[in-house]
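Question (not urgent): is this output format expected?
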Amino acid sequence: MQGVRRGARAVLKYFAPLMFFLIVVQVLLAGEGIFGIKKGPKLDDQKTLDPHRFLGFLITEPIALLFLIAALLAWLPDKRLRWVSVGLPLLTFAQTPLAWGGRWSGMFHPLNAFLLLGLYGWLSGRLHRGARAVTDDRAAAPATAR
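Got this back:
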């Protein structure tokens, strides 16, 4: 099981920055879609938001599920990192109902997106710093004779 955990932790180390990057792209697509809206049709009928909707579906459904599986397999030793790595996909899943729930739930959609952006960025930094610390500890430790 240690090999699986080690592999899942390595996956998370690169998966978290990928999620951060995808959310930045999502924000850009949302801005492009909003400023491209034409007067007349309802917002649901606007095609300018289709790229945002498509990438949002990919992030919130299959990709977040894969992240959750990797986080559960990694089961990080630091309790805070473990809670954040497992909770982030759940917050990511919440993006869809927030977007489609109407005006009052929709107002939390961008707020949750920025919360996700910050937490994925924080997790990325912590995972990369943690990996460096382990490497530094191994390099600093004296070799033992067998």
